[in-house]
Amino acid sequence: MLEGVIVDEGAGRPEAEMVKVVFKLHQDETGWPPAGSERLWAVSLGDDLARLDNVPFFVRGYAMGDVVRFATDRAGVHWVQEAVRYSDNCTIRIMPGEGGGRDEVRQAVLDAFAPYGVTGEGIARFGMVALNVPGAVDVASVKKLLEEGEEDGRWEFEEGCVTEAWRTAGR
């Protein structure tokens, strides 16, 4: 089992406190993302509010720790309506250069960022890793590692959700 990779998304999470919230996704001209929606675990904050509890793979503009408002449909699905409060976290997605579908390749990516206090999850089906970069870490060093890895051909990356501190780091 990979460290930092959720295999059983419900494992160890108290059912009464956790909910799944759903984001509607919009594909770009290339057909990305490859899904119409993404479900994320969230901590229920009562009523129609929840705090995201895992890293989005496809949703843009949101990060782990963000508080969202949702509307529940007749089928009981909690559809995200808006952000209520953003965390200081960033979401960065990495596509390894080779072998992203293999556990050890995704784990090597997670291991490269762990010393910086960055966590994440991998998804074999799409051969990618989604990182949660907390605002309290040295974002300039994390950004530098990302850029070096891209220059070396180890991976490509996408900024799924970044903060002002991220944008200005390393300038």
TrEMBL record:
This is DUF4265 domain-containing protein. It comes from the Bacteria. Pfam families: DUF4265. InterPro entries: DUF4265.
